[in-house]
Write a structure and sequence with these properties.
The chain has 338 residues and is an alpha/beta fold. The chain is 53% helix and 12% strand.
């Protein structure tokens, strides 16, 4: 089974205005405490004023540059690396954002941080050699202008990364565990089966293109927990009824599934032919072990099938052992063990 990481994370991304306001206001606040020392002579007074002016402008350039560089670098270094994600999450990120644009935006912020850092060092050096008040003031104004122009060049990149962060909250937090994905038409008892298997209330994980999200819970296997995922709004109707992006979001689930449990309802909720058609489509599409389970055997039963009742728990334990047999067989094959 491919490794599954924790939920994709990004730091807060500032807008151009917030970033510049934060940098310049902090710089002004720090510089405002500098005072010229009183001198006993006019020459000493002048040297004290020159020192204070140089110190203030140096602080403004230093603090503003440091804030801009550190905040831009923080976005770059604390944002996940797409190329290091497992296939499941790569597929989902590609559904939600333009990966090329995402990478270019991060590259633009990295460039901006380096450019501002270079200009900060350059103007700090020039300020040390300044001997006139107006020169010191001009150098600081020039640096502010260059820093502002640099941030302006990446304002669209900042805006896009803010958009990406909002979109990527829809990537679920699945654990690196053997995983059973439950499929079937709506109202066949998938959620009830999940509850019967785990005995606990499932977590609702957000997932792209379904407002219901994934229902995730855990059951005890032979060698530790097994993750069970119910898929309301996803694996519950034919793929021909989906658009391209929905199909991508659904296909991403195949990366985490060790086994798919397909739930039939033998009552008159749906014709069995309709349920069989979806079963065959999922089996052909995902190329994963798929176990057909007939739920609601306390109401109706199809002979010769793996029958269970999520309500009475009839057949639940034998069904779970069959699921585990397929789970661990696939895990052994995947790991290369005999």
């Amino acid at each position: 089974m491919e490794e599954v990481t924790e939920r994709i994370r990004m730091p807060d991304v500032p807008t151009k205005k917030i970033l510049l306001d934060r940098a310049f206001s902090r710089a002004s606040k720090r510089a405002s405490v500098v005072r010229a020392a009183e001198g006993q002579t006019e020459e000493q007074e002048k040297r004290g004023r020159l020192w204070a002016a140089r110190e203030k402008e140096s602080i403004r350039i230093g603090i503003s540059g440091d804030v801009l560089v550190s905040e831009l670098q923080e976005v770059v270094t604390n944002t996940f690396s797409y190329d290091k994600l497992p296939p499941f999450q790569q597929d989902l990120v590609a559904v939600l954002v333009d990966v090329d644009r995402f990478k270019k935006a991060l590259g633009a912020l990295k460039w901006a941080a380096a450019e501002i850092g270079t200009q900060q060092s350059k103007y700090t050096g020039r300020l040390r050699n300044a001997r006139e008040f107006h020169t010191m003031n001009r150098l600081r104004i020039e640096f502010y202008g260059i820093a502002s122009a640099t941030v302006d060049k990446v304002k669209k990149d900042l805006a896009y990364l803010i958009e990406c962060k909002a979109m990527l909250t829809n990537v679920p937090n699945l654990k690196d565990l053997p995983t059973v994905v439950i499929a079937g038409l709506p109202n066949v008892g998938k959620s009830s089966l999940l509850a019967a298997l785990t005995g606990s209330r499932p977590e609702i994980q957000p997932y792209p293109f379904t407002t219901k999200g994934l229902m995730v819970s855990y059951a005890e296997g032979r060698y530790g927990d097994v993750q069970i995922v119910d898929t309301p709004g996803l694996l519950d109707r034919p793929l021909k009824d989906r658009n391209r992006i929905e199909k991508q979001a659904i296909a991403a689930l195949s990366h985490v599934a060790s086994v798919i449990v397909y739930v039939y309802d033998p009552t008159d909720t749906y014709p069995l032919e309709q349920q069989e058609a979806l079963y065959k489509e999922i089996k052909a599409t995902y190329k994963k072990p798929i176990i057909a389970v007939y739920n609601k055997c306390d109401v109706a039963r199809v002979e010769g099938t793996l029958a269970v009742s999520a309500v009475t728990r009839e057949g639940i334990e034998p069904m779970w052992q069959e699921v585990l047999r397929h789970v661990y067989r696939r895990e052994r094959v995947h790991s290369g063990s005999s």
